[in-house]
Amino acid sequence: MAVIRWFLGILILSYEKVASPKGVQRSSEQQVAIDEATKSLTLYQYKACPFCLKVRFAMKRQSLAIETKDAKRSELARAELLAGGGLLKVPCLKIVDNQGAETWMYESSDIISYLNQRFDAPVAV
Ligand SMILES: N[C@@H](CCC(=O)N[C@@H](CS)C(=O)NCC(=O)O)C(=O)O
Predict the structure, then answer these.
(1) CA-nearest residue, atom 16 of ligand 1
(2) Where is the GST N-terminal domain (predicted)?
């Protein structure tokens, strides 16, 4: 089982290398605004998780420099995820609003919809 998981991990990471999408090009002012907005986001993930890869591709497509934390390798990240989100499941997007309130969003499809809705339009930061 561990060997199969290891092999799948290698496949996923290799696929990411060859299939990683191109990022959208924005004006530098727009990109600076988006970079500022994404400082309040953190993606908890595993490198070799296919659902996390789906989210990383969406981030790449949108040129979003969201901080990622590896909940498999980092005990601290794992503890943060469990304490904040309540589940040891990835991907999970931590969203901090202007008042400092946190939302912990699970489910890759929900995370991608959220990112697309928030960052697709140039003014929606
Ligand atoms: N439906 C979820 C599936 C997420 C999922 O199954 N993630 C796995 C890793 S690939 C997980 O976190 N499993 C719990 C664990 O590994 O402890 C999604 O699309 O985000």
Answers:
(1) 89
(2) 39-123
CA-CA-CA-CA dihedral for 100, 85, 115, 14, to nearest 10: 130
Fold classification of 2-119 (topology level): Glutaredoxin (3.40.30)
Report, in angstroms and rounded to the nearest whole number, the Rg of the chain calculated over CA atoms: 15
Q: How many angstroms separate the CA atoms of 89 and 78, rounded?
A: 9
- Angstrom CA distances, 109 to 52, 55, 116, 125, stand at 10, 8, 10, 20
Distance 40 CA to ligand 1 centre (A): 23
Quick: pLDDT tens for 77-97. 999 999 999 999 999 999 999
